[in-house]
Amino acid sequence: MAKRPNPSIVTDAKARELLQRFECPLPFHAVRTRLLGSIASLDLLMTPMRAVERLWGGELPVFDSTADANELIGTLVMGLWNQLAEHQSRSAPFRLTRIEVPATREGVATLLLMRDQEVWNFCLGLVGTDPDPKFPDRTMRTIAVLSRVRDMCERTRELAEDLEKDFSMEDSAGLIQQFREVTKVAEHEIHEAVLSCTRARRAMMQGMPPGRPAAH
Q: What percent of the chain has pLDDT over 90?
């Protein structure tokens, strides 16, 4: 008898295929950071299912069959969400998506767009549906750093996409190397925010009245 696949083990290729099949508005790299932000969110009503629905703007896509629904939900909720939740540990730092790009203006623009999307979606997931979240000081420092990272990405991408500006292969290679270091900074800050929010959420849950739903 063949072994049934473990839904908690999801490959990137499988997740990408399902997101494309069900026309998710977000690319996979942005989905990863959006869900990670939702995991760390202090919005205690942000359940895994609600976070997945928000990837499609608040409602899951229309499915042709129950099997399709189970496949998508199993992959994103039972699989990807649980894998990302492991980054709530100090010993499991989060890593942003790595891609190889050519040393051209197009390569630089592609890399910076991806980083911008990753950082922005982490922040969106972190805020959740709370219009005035009360983050720990460490998380506020992360948000400030990530805001600067986004600004760097946007300004540099605009420069790379401006065909009236000189942009040599040496310029491109230098920027790609520079943003490898920026990536490390963003990763560190994201992980610190996840850890600080995890501690804060546990403290909040300890003070919750009986029967209040716990998100994570």
A: 77
